[in-house]
Amino acid sequence: MFIILILLSLHKIKRPIVNLLKKIDILFFIYLIISTLALLLSWDTIASPWHLFLNHAAIALLVLVLVYTDSKTDHIIVYLLRTTYPLIVSGYFYSETVFYNKLLFDNIDPFLMSLETKVFGMQASLLFSAVFSNKLFSELMYFSYFSFYLLIAAFILYMFFKKREYFLQVVFQLSVSLYMFYFIFMLIPSAGPQFYFLSPDNKLPEAYVFSHVMHFIQNVAEQPTGAFPSSHVGGAFIILLLSRKFAPDFYKLSWPFVGLIVLSTVYIKAHYAIDVIGGFVIAPFILSLSSYLFKFPIFRK
Q1: Which terminus of the chain, N or C, has fewer Cβ atoms within 10 Å?
Q2: Do 118 and 266 share a structural domain?
């Protein structure tokens, strides 16, 4: 509601600002409006919904200020922020899905656990962390899970400095991909092993530095939502596919990191192994959709 009012006001009063919107901005506001409507539909189930709507309004206004500022300056930092902000705020949108991911269905973790046992004959996250319980290995796994965010940042910066001609397309496609995962999380509620398992099975492996880093991130941003399919795995795979097409050198370097990210999602009990398969399967379809949207006439440059 706040976002719609803001956009209507800008259309009538600040037409020049609206004309500055690019396809990445249109994508962002479409998702913002969809998620705002999802919050409205979940109003009765949210403890204090008003602060979420105020957050949406504040984000929308900050984006418009950033768009306008970018039009008045050639500063490289402003340009980077103006083009990559959908990725920067994507973490917030992920955590927000917990408020409306049960609009259509109840939590499907029992089904995922049953499917996991049928496919693998075990609960992979329990066995993996139990067999490889060494603290050094755990540290590697925690760092690998955290490296997903580093991989995104490294890929975007590499494209900006080395492959500028494809930079905007890559940012757009990666943003669409992440938001599509979040849209799926709106429809398919799943918490994942660390939230759904009971004690002591939900106890996380012990490590050193990065276990504390990831526990802090999980306490601040992680929610019992978005386990299936794994956006960590799907997003990392999408970066592989994009880099294979646009940045072969980065593609060769990123393989080990993507492999470790895949292993880490199961090891630290963020995902069932079946979530990993789901991430790999759906990633190419999401990437194809993002490519189609990038060329879609309504999304002008």
Answers
A1: C
A2: yes
pTM: 0.89
- Determine, yes or no, domain membership for 94: no
Domain containing residue 21 = 1-88
Least confident span in 16-20, 21-25, 58-62, 278-282: 16-20
In a domain, 278, yes or no: yes
Q: Could you read off the pLDDT of 4-19 as tens digits, one per residue? A: 444 444 444 444 666 7
Number of domain units in the chain:
2
Is there a domain that residue 296 lies in?
yes
In percent, the amount of the chain with pLDDT more than 70 equals: 91
Compute CA distances 218 → 118, 194, 195, 297, whole Å.
29, 10, 11, 39
